[in-house]
Amino acid sequence: MYKKILVPLDGSSKSELSLPVAQQLAEPMGSELCLLVAVDLGKVLFVDRHSKLPTDFEKLGNQQLKEAQKYLHEVQERLAGSNLKVSIHVEQADPRDAIVTYAGEAEVDLIVMASAGKSNWMRWISGSIADQVLRSSPCPVLVVRPPVTNEPK
């Protein structure tokens, strides 16, 4: 049913909560898992503009892209024993745009992504990537929520 399953990641343990779910869906069907990291260089460069030290923005951007590629290779290796075809992709764009664009261009059948677990207030201020992907995705989206804890946020 699902030939390609897109799993957007950001390097956090919360984003990786989607991996076991995607793997469970993909293995019985022989689906391809497409792992995607979107590097928003605008945010990386904006943060560094406040530094008093001179910054080589191109070098910083290239470093971020290399780190994303390295991270995806590590995740791909962790999934190596599962008999799945796993492809990795790094996009230089806002994550919301990168996920939806990639899903459409690669003809993805399903997106499996984790919710960041933000409070309603923080989601209202910054916007939820999962919410925006749900609204504009060309395919179904399965959102994996983080475990509920009894700790105050």
In a few lines, what is going on in this structure?
With 153 residues, this protein is of the alpha/beta class. The chain has helices at residues 18-29, 41-48, 57-78, 95-105, 120-126, 129-136, and strands at residues 4-9, 32-38, 85-91, 110-114, 141-144.
Ranges where pLDDT stays below 50 over 5 or more residues in a row are: 121-126
Q: Kindly, what is the distance between the CA atoms of the first and last residues, rounded to a whole number of angstroms?
A: 39 Å
Helix content: 40-55%
Which band does the percent of strand residues land in?
A: 15-25%
How many H/I helices? 6
Characterization of the model:
The protein is an alpha/beta fold. The chain has six helices and five strands; from the N terminus they run βαβααβαβααβ. The protein has helices spanning 18-29, 41-48, 57-78, 95-105, 120-126, 129-136; strands at 4-9, 32-38, 85-91, 110-114, 141-144. It has a five-stranded parallel beta sheet, with helices on both faces. Helix 4 (95-105) packs parallel to helix 6. The model is unreliable at 121-126 (pLDDT under 50).
